[in-house]
Amino acid sequence: MSSVVSFDALVLAPVLAPAAGALAVLVLDVAAPRLRVAHHAVGVLALLAGLAFAVPAALGVESAPARSLCLPAPAGACFYEAGPLAGALQLGALASALVVLLLVWPDRGTEPGTESGIEPARDPLRGGPAVVVALVLAATAGAAAVAAAKDLGSWLVALELATLPAVALVALRGTSRASAGAVSLLTTSLVSFAMVALGAALWLVAAGQPVFSVAAVERAHAAHDTWAVLLLGVLLLAGGLGFKLSLVPFHAWTPQAYAGGTEPVAAFLAATSKVAALAALVAVLRPLSAAQAAVLVVVGVVAVASMTLGNVLALVQDDPVRLLAWSTVAQAGWVVLPLATVVPAGLAASGGYLLAYVIATLVAFAVVVLVVHAAGPTGDPAAGRTLAAYKGMLRTRPLLGAALGLALVSLAGLPPGVVGLVAKVLALRPVVAQGLWVLALFAVANAVLGVAVYLRWFAVLFQEADAAVGTAIPSARRAPRGPLAALALSATALVLVSVAPQLLLGLVA
Fold first, then answer.
1. How deeply is 113 buried, as exposed, middle or buried, from its count of CB atoms within 10 A (0-12, 13-18, 19+)?
2. Where are the bilayer-spanning segments (predicted)?
3. What is the tally of structural domains in the chain?
4. In a domain, 394, yes or no
5. How many CB atoms lie within 10 A of CB 191?
6. Among 304, 272, 328, which residue's Cα sits nearest to residue 428?
């Protein structure tokens, strides 16, 4: 008789759907390799199914989470548990991956023999659409799994499943810059895994159980020696996850990997991968918050350092992808700022801020993909990777410019991007409530600096367009349908949550 008696396929569907989709895509590629659109269609359907099954957990109550893989009594421990926050993060991972698949949707105008839809014909991803879709789905399954994992074993496996396919996605571009970015990301991942594995071992030694639970933390807290070991383990776990979140001083891989990979891959790193990393960190810190552990001041220091360095370096970037890479570093500081309080309200604020950041960043990347696609086949491929390519966009392509403008003001925390402003207020609330005024003052100063970062790009949208770069702004007729659908989906979501922020932030409250 198996020790695991509980297996609820519907509860596990947010993980099983993308995993099954990845397998189905590979089987389809063997049976019908020329059906390029079919691979993407299967991937989209798998993600839509995962989204549908993740909704009940996200709309549920904290006291009655969705559980599966539970041991029989008297132990009764469950290895999979998805409450509202975990469900919301699963929705974020699945939805962001859906946008990424639309960004790489095959373009009907692509020449035969090229890897269509992944990148303009000048610089395709290697391996074919089936490989790309399967990698995205596999990483998304890992992101959804780590959000609900409660035992060390499945948590570690899910975390690495969410990470390693991203390395391959960066490398598949096949250029020297892509190789450098992939090596940087791979090296970072190996160091991160070493820290996380050591931290997990220390957690097991101190808590006596391979699970993230309040009871395990309380058992370790009962003895001074074991409590010190547990805190050391938590610091190692947080440090290892800091690499994946692009937190200072673990951030060096971020601009290399973003610039080396294609724009859709950079969007995946900025969105889905960050959801997986935060979900893993929440799984570690939630038992500490429930046990009312001491404040993790180190987390606050790292948050402030990330905000400051990210904003300062983003101010001097001319490549929009590199700007968004350093923006990720700065925004990661805001994401973890509430976690310095180690209270339940801080966990919810962190999750809400990340989801708001993900939506706005996906809109920005969708516009970048469209601009690069328009510039590549008709002129200098690098033309779409400068801020000058966006001059006059609000005049010549008002809808495209308005979508990008709303994304930028949302990231800056300015109206009409109300969701960004509310998310920043919610991130500051637990910090102020715990009396961490120094952290709050540094965060406010960085909020002002962040406004300068995004308004610098926003101002370009109003400038007079140069004739030399005017062709970089795509028309609706020439734009590929996949990225257009991705922009429409993400921009609609951003408008909705800007009008009614509670639609998003209420999921994690």
1. exposed
2. 6-28, 40-59, 85-106, 127-149, 184-206, 226-253, 265-285, 291-316, 323-348, 354-378, 399-423, 435-455, 484-508
3. 1
4. yes
5. 15
6. 304
